[in-house]
Structure formats: structure tokens, C-alpha cells
């Protein structure tokens, strides 16, 4: 008699778009100053501002909110070149995302900051490192970066972290109960990046096994022997 082997369910790695609108932004003490800056535009203290915070702290979401409001284009810092700067700044407002040490063309950034000042354009940059700490070779660029106004974002507090976990599941059309949220909130690193990774892993495993997302499944995925 030939034993039947239950087929293993395949899970397609379909992208899950995260809503980056103002209504879907998770507000809390950790990002209050950054959100206030975005909401205050165009009444900014300086035309060039930078949001600095850890990975997954909401910098790109805030930049997307501002871009929609200001009619700004968005560009990755790594793709800026001296030649494409004028075109990127054509609307008078620009988001420069993921500006971190050794990830950009110094001449391009220097040209951008100068042109923004000349054209009275607005620039919102995001990154994980204070611009004043960048080890740049161009002395004039170094002085420009030291003059950039910075607003920092902190890791989420407990309330915001739990709300973020719920939102990340909701983005995947998955409803979870409080036991799952509490379990994750007390066992993973207190960062948005860690929450995204955990939610993705749980959602993937639930689909693969054809199960609901429960505390028991979370314990399995996190390999928690005490659960």
C-alpha cells in the first residue's frame, strides 16, 4: 500500500503595499516633532531639512506625506548625479531618501544644496546618521551639511509599537487578537524594522500552513521554548 503524502502548500511571495498616506501614519511621542515639521510646511525654519532616525522609524512615510502635500519629486540619494540635479528639483520641492555616509555623490549633493538655495526650493532628506557626522571630502559640502536643520525620530514607545504591529497585519488584510500583539510586543526588538520582519514571517507561515495567526503560531515562528 502506497502512503499518500500530503502536498506542501506553496506560498507566493506577493508584495504587500504599505499605505503611506497621512491618515495611515502612526502618531506617537517618538515621531511627534517630525510629524509637526511635515504638517507645518511651508512654514519651515529652513528650506532644507533632514529627518534622522533608525531603520523603520517612519522617515520615508513622513517624506511621502510631505511629497504629496508639496508636489515634491522623490529620489534615492544613491541615484543623484550632478547632471540630473536640476531636473529632480524642477518642481521646487524634492525628497532625497536614504542619505547616509558613503552612499551618495558629493558633487551632486553639493550642487543640489546650492541650487535649492538659489531657486528657493524645498528639500527634505532622510537618513540614519546626522549629516554633521558625514565623512565628506569636499570642505564646502561639509559646511553645508553642518548647517542642515535636523529633526530626529526615536524608536517607538510601547503604545506606538503595539499600534504599529496591528497596522502591519492590517496592511496584509490579517486581523489578530490582543494576545498575538502582546506576545510580539514583549519578545521582539522594539523597532519598526523588527516588527515588519516578524509580521512578514508570521503571515508567510500562516499562509503556508493554512492556519490563522495565533499566539501559538507566533511562538513557533519565534522558536520560543518557554511558550
Helix and strand layout, with pairings?
Layout: H1 32-40, E1 48-52, H2 59-70, E2 73-76, H3 85-88, E3 93-97, H4 106-119, E4 122-127, H5 139-146, E5 149-152, H6 158-171, H7 178-185, H8 192-209, H9 215-222
Parallel strand pairs: 1-4, 1-5, 2-3, 3-4
Helix pairs in contact: 1-2, 6-7, 6-8, 8-9
List keywords for this structure.
227 residues; alpha/beta; Rossmann fold; Helicase, Ruva Protein, domain 3; 2 domains; 5-stranded parallel beta sheet; 9 helices; 11% strand; elongated
Q: What can you see in these coordinates?
A:
This protein has 227 residues and is of the alpha/beta class. It folds into two domains: 121 residues, Rossmann fold, CATH 3.40.50.300; 65 residues, Helicase, Ruva Protein, domain 3, CATH 1.10.8. Helix content is 42%, strand content 11%. It has a five-stranded parallel beta sheet. Strand 2, helix 3 and strand 3 form a beta-alpha-beta unit. Helix 1 runs parallel beside helix 2. It is elongated.
User: What structural class is derived from the secondary structure elements?
Assistant: alpha/beta
What is the helix tally? 9
Can you tell me the overall shape?
elongated
The pLDDT mean sits at: 89
Strand arrangement within the widest β-sheet reads 2-3-4-1-5
The CATH superfamily title of the largest domain: P-loop containing nucleotide triphosphate hydrolases
Q: Give the termini distance in whole angstroms.
A: 39 Å
Just name the CATH architecture of the largest domain.
3-Layer(aba) Sandwich
Output the radius of gyration: 21 Å
Q: What level of helicity do the residues show? A: 40-55%
- Uncertain residue ranges: 1-14
Q: Which oligomeric form is depicted?
A: single chain
In terms of DSSP E residues, the strand content is 5-15%
Number of beta strands: 5
Q: How many structural domains does the protein architecture include? A: 2
| N to C succession of SSEs | HEHEHEHEHEHHHH
Question: Which sheet architecture does the biggest sheet show?
Answer: 5 strands, parallel
Amino acid at each position: 500500500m502506497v502512503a499518500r503524502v500530503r502536498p506542501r502548500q506553496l506560498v507566493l511571495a506577493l508584495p504587500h503595499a504599505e499605505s503611506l498616506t497621512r491618515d495611515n501614519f502612526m502618531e506617537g511621542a517618538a515621531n511627534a516633532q517630525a510629524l509637526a515639521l511635515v504638517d507645518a510646511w511651508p512654514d519651515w525654519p529652513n528650506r532644507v531639512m533632514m529627518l534622522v532616525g533608525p531603520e523603520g522609524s517612519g522617515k520615508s512615510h513622513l517624506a511621502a506625506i510631505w511629497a504629496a502635500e508639496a508636489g515634491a519629486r522623490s529620489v534615492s540619494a544613491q541615484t543623484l548625479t550632478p547632471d540630473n540635479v536640476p531636473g529632480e528639483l524642477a518642481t521646487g520641492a524634492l525628497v532625497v531618501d536614504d542619505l547616509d555616509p558613503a552612499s551618495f555623490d558629493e558633487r551632486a549633493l553639493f550642487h543640489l544644496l546650492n541650487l535649492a538655495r538659489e531657486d528657493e526650493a524645498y528639500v527634505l532628506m532622510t537618513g540614519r546618521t546626522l549629516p554633521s557626522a558625514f565623512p565628506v571630502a569636499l570642505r564646502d559640502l561639509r559646511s553645508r551639511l553642518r548647517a542642515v536643520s535636523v529633526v530626529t525620530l526615536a524608536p517607538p514607545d510601547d503604545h506606538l509599537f503595539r499600534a504599529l504591529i496591528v497596522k502591519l497585519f492590517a496592511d496584509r488584510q490579517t486581523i489578530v487578537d490582543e494576545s498575538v500583539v502582546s506576545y510580539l510586543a514583549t519578545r521582539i526588538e522594539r523597532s519598526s524594522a523588527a516588527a515588519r520582519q516578524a509580521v512578514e514571517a508570521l503571515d508567510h507561515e500562516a499562509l503556508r500552513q493554512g492556519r490563522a495567526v495565533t499566539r501559538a503560531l507566533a511562538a513557533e515562528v519565534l522558536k520560543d521554548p518557554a511558550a
